[in-house]
Amino acid sequence: MVHLGPCEQTMRSVLVVVCLLRASCVLSESEQSFWSPTERDEAGAPPKAADILYSDAVDAYERGDWTATVQLMGSALRSVRSVRRARLACRRTCREAGEVPLSSMSSTSQNSSQETSQSALHDLRFFEALLLRAECLSRCEKHHLGEASLHLLSEELKSEFVKRTPYHYLQHSYFQTNQLDKAAACAHTFMIANPDHPEMLRNLEYYRRMLGVPEEFFVDLESRPHMESLLKGAKHYKNENYSRALDHLETALREYLEADGECRDLCDGPRTFEGYAYLDYSSDLHQSIADHYIQVLACRQECGKALATHTSRTIPIDDYLPTHYNFLQFSYYKINEYERAIECTKSFLLFHPDDHTMQKNVKFYHHLLGEEKDVQPRQEAIAHLQRSLLEKQMLYFAQEAFGVPFVDPDDWTPDDIKPANQNHGQPMKSSKKEAKVQLDAIWSLISEEEEQEEAASESPPEQSPSAAQRHLKEGGQLPSDAMTVVFNSANLNGTQRVVLDGVLNENECQELQALISMVGVGGDGYIGKLSPHTPHERFAGITVYKALKLAQQGALPTHRAHLYYQGSERARQAVAAYFQLEPQLYFSYTHLVCREAIKGIQDMRADLSHPVHVDNCLLDLQTGTCLREQPAYTHRDYSGILYLGDEFEGGNFIFTETDATTVTAEVRPKCGRLVAFSSGEENPHGVRAVTHGRRCAVALWFTFDVTSKEKERVQADALMRQLFSEADELGQLSDPLVSNRDEL
Predict the structure, then answer these.
(1) Which pTM does this prediction carry?
(2) With CB atoms counted within 10 Å of each terminal CB, which end of the chain scores lower, N or C?
């Protein structure tokens, strides 16, 4: 036991009491600031839970009570905003309240005999501050929000708010009550997040052309200030009005950093530990803390990506933060503020130190300044970069040490931060991207806004093509002579379709079937539902990482797990090569699955093994349209099914029209056969009923978006490096079917 002297005990007690009093005082001062009068109910309490309000609003909508729908759905939206604001305020309040001057409690004695005691004291002081902050947060949130369970939303309901579904209900309700200005605003707000929604496109056209609603009412009620300010600044920049551009750009930068801080604060909330139950994971105190903190760090890294993604897009704007400094440096130059121009140019160079254009600009601005001054980058840029790089270092360390996947959302991360093998086997990206290239996404958004304004009185815009539709090539050289093209798009009556044979041989098919027979998990990927698509079949599956993990534990022959990993990579290379895909193609999800007919219930069966669907959008059978919105996997660009045999009845793969009934092509599975196609609405597909036997295949989805990379694949890559020798290391696997000359 470590004994403290009387003075030390007194000091420690005083500091604890002061800290608790400080927390109480801060809370008392802020208790009345979280809720506006309209956000409290008649008793002065916070609003009802958003899930209850939303459910009541939908009920009111279905019975045609439009006034109640408006009131309840509006309250649900305000509740979500208010809860978020309260949680942010509590976190910031309690961060201040938990700041204990620990250094004042440290002992001046540092001899070696007391090192162990000092270490123990350091841990205790750390956890003391942690406990104080936890107590503050618990008390603050309970006071302002009530019990935590009252404001927990399901993932499904969160998705509805992200998709802005409440505004769909509101626009119709406002229309029914003849409040056309509000109906137009709600319709526009919904369309921003769902640009391809055909019904809302027609509604907007009707409000504009038939009802004559003035254009000023078509506003985004959920606009993101930092993005709006940046686009306004970019418009003035484009029109060479640099003084006005600077006002908006500086505001945009400030708003972005504020929004980033809020997002990062909210990352401190509850986290889940996916996959640990499957692996019978257990951990000690430090590992548990590390596991949670790693997820907090990963969440904070994702904030930049989320804030850089325009509501109408699924992919973030490249170099979002550095782009601000790019605009600013030139704007300050144009108004002869050369010192500020140097500050912003050097701030940009923090992220891209090899950018030749910016290096020249620094020299040019110094020349114009006419004096040698030690002008430094802006402090907020330095602070942001230092914090982000330290977080990345910790996350890359966790990836190497614990196998926790981390997909870096930023292109500007220097190579010395990444592990040595991070880019092994991947094409090198240029770190010398010219500044003007980074503005393309901004100009694209501005052009879209201008086109929409010009076309306000014309017909609605057509649906934009998918990423795959912009890469309409095929017939490329396959990565192995063993692979052959059986059917191309013309044979299959469609576009971006192919059937290849020879991707696996008979022995490999048998090995993979043996793998899933040994370790396949019933309902894997479907929350344990054994018959997720039809009651007539049982479903089992396993991912690449889980197979490799079981091989590491000795529960599965290592060569089978290696073959699963290698075979799926072989299929990826075949898809990329045949369709001549110029962007890097990443795994989005890999799943070895089997569908087995249940004996005794196959008579008179009329359903499908897997209903007709589209892989990256929601197929509307009534209108024949496909909405690229959540919960669809909108990031998917190409898909593939690699079959392991044909010893079953039924189970043919079909392509259809968007009515899901008109079959355009049908493919019989066989060992080593790969059906590959683009994932968009051009390729609706399904699987005929398996009426006897077991149908096994490796299901594959791919994406061009590096931030949507399959996380389990990243873990599998790391595990491959551990399981196999240097000669078989990732990127150097000896695959007899893939020649080195054709590696992607």
Answers:
(1) 0.60
(2) N
Secondary structure of 27-93 as H, E, C letters: HHHHCCCCCCHHHCCCCCCCCCCHHHHHHHHHHHHHCCCHHHHHHHHHHHHHHHHHHHHHHHHHHHH
Nearest to 413 by CA among 441, 388, 377, 394: 388
Q: How far apart are CA 144 and CA 121, in angstroms?
A: 35
The predicted-structure confidence for 166-206, as pLDDT tens digits, reads as follows 999 999 999 999 999 999 999 999 988 888 787 788 888 88
Count the neighbouring beta carbons within 10 Å of the beta carbon of residue 684: 25
In a shared domain, residues 652 and 522: yes
139-171 confidence digits (pLDDT tens): 888 888 887 777 788 888 888 898 899 999 999
Same domain, 589 and 726: yes
Q: Coil, helix or strand for 656?
A: strand
The yes-or-no verdict on residue 381 having pLDDT over 90 is yes
Compute the distance between CA of residue 83 and CA of residue 91 in angstroms, rounded to an integer: 12
Q: How far apart are CA 545 and CA 405, in angstroms?
A: 11
Q: Going by C-beta distance under 8 Å and a sequence separation of 6 or more, which residues neighbour residue 351? A: 319, 321, 322, 385, 412
Tell me, yes or no, whether 124 and 230 share the same domain. Answer: no
The answer, yes or no, to whether residue 707 has pLDDT greater than 50, is yes
- Using alpha carbons, select from 662, 667, 663, 608 the residue that is nearest to residue 641: 667
For 618, the enclosing helix (H) or strand (E) is strand 618-620
DSSP string, 117-182: HHHHHHHHHHHHHHHHHHHHHHHHHHHHH-SGGGGPPPHHHHHHHHTTHHHHHHHHHHHHTT-HHH
Give dist(CA 206, CA 200) in Å, integer.
Answer: 10
Do 430 and 488 lie in one domain? The reply is: no
- Tally of CB atoms within 10 A around 350: 18
- Comparing CA positions, the residue from 297, 305, 302 lying closest to residue 404 is 297
Instruction: Look at the block and give the residue holding tokens 């994702």.
Output: 302
Q: Choose the weakest-confidence range: 59-63, 403-407, 630-634, 684-688.
A: 630-634
Q: Which sequence positions are flagged as catalytic?
A: 695
Distance CA 239, CA 331 (A): 12
Tens digit of pLDDT for each residue in 626-679?
888 767 888 899 999 999 999 999 999 999 999 999 999 999 999 999 999 999
Is residue 205 situated within a structural domain?
no
Torsion of CA 216, 222, 228, 231, to 10 degrees: -80
